[in-house]
């Protein structure tokens, strides 16, 4: 039970810190509004690092990501009996993390009247910089996740010692190099659960949740993760 709680808590920490920085960068009258891509990439790296540390303290593997759990299990790198518990923990943790940010920034959501002002689903989830190219967006997510997972596979047990710091640096590096096409979800739970929260919570003045795009940051990362595990096993 502690292991699943670790995945839940770690994913919640990841989403609170990650979507929190996105809210701070977008919402009206937030000190950090308008910051650059380096801030976003570095902040998400820290969010993942601290999430992995929290998960590891409970004895969890620190996946925080269904793409990791599913691909590792498929290639016998993770126990199949734990998959369902990890997935539930990840999606629920990500949803609760989004709820926390909706509450924390509630006055700023009220002040941010329109999508043009920054009240956008992009605070909680990802979206393409160039719309109308979902096939290419899928490819972008697959490529970014492939390199993320392939590097992870060469770290070994990534909750040990300073390895969570390295995981965070990988996220920052992926964001800087490959993330500016789609916002680099890399993680179905990190994207879908906060997107769902934005869609159903009574957030003032909210814009469109763009659920029609949600399949891209779900299937793209899963495809990339499976490909990375295949290459790792073969070579």
What attributes characterize this protein structure?
single chain; mainly alpha; 64% helix; 0% strand
Walk me through this protein's architecture.
The protein is an all-alpha fold and 235 residues long. It is built from nine helices and no strands. The chain has helices at 2-26, 37-57, 66-74, 83-104, 106-111, 134-153, 163-178, 188-200, 216-234. The protein is globular, with a radius of gyration of 17 Å. The chain starts with a helix and ends with a helix. The mean pLDDT is 96.
Quick take:
With 235 residues, the chain is mostly helical.
Shape call: globular
| Cα-based radius of gyration, to the nearest Å | 17 Å
Distance between the termini: 35 Å
What share of residues is helical?
55-70%
Supply the number of helical segments.
9
Task: Note poorly predicted spans.
Answer: none
Write down how many β-strands occur, each being a DSSP E stretch of 2 or more residues: 0
The major beta sheet can be summarized as: none
Mean pLDDT: 96
Structure classification: mainly alpha
Which band does the percent of strand residues land in? under 5%
Helix-strand sequence: HHHHHHHHH
Lay out the secondary structure.
Elements: H1 2-26, H2 37-57, H3 66-74, H4 83-104, H5 106-111, H6 134-153, H7 163-178, H8 188-200, H9 216-234
Helix pairs in contact: 1-2, 1-4, 2-7, 3-4, 3-9, 4-8, 6-7, 6-9, 8-9
């Amino acid at each position: 039970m502690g292991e699943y709680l670790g995945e839940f808590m770690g994913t919640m920490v990841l989403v609170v810190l990650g979507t929190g920085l996105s809210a701070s960068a977008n919402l009206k009258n937030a000190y950090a509004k308008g910051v650059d891509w380096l801030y976003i990439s570095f902040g998400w790296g820290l969010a993942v690092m601290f999430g992995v540390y929290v998960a590891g303290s409970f004895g969890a593997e620190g996946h925080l990501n269904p793409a990791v759990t599913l691909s590792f299990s498929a290639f016998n790198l993770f126990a199949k009996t734990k998959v369902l518990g990890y997935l539930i923990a990840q999606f629920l943790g990500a949803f609760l993390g989004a709820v926390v940010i909706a509450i924390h920034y509630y006055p700023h959501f009220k002040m941010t009247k329109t999508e043009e002002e920054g009240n956008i689903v992009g605070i909680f989830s990802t979206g393409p910089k160039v719309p109308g190219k979902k096939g290419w967006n899928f490819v972008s997510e697959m490529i970014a996740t492939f390199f993320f997972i392939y590097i992870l596979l060469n770290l070994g047990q990534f909750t040990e010692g300073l390895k969570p710091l390295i995981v965070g640096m990988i996220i920052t590096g992926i964001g800087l190099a490959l993330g500016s096409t789609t916002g680099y979800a890399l993680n179905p739970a990190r994207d879908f659960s906060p997107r769902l929260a934005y869609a159903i919570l009574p957030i003032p003045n909210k814009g469109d949740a763009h659920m029609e795009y949600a399949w891209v940051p779900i299937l793209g990362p899963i495809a990339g993760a499976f490909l990375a595990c295949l290459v790792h096993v073969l070579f």
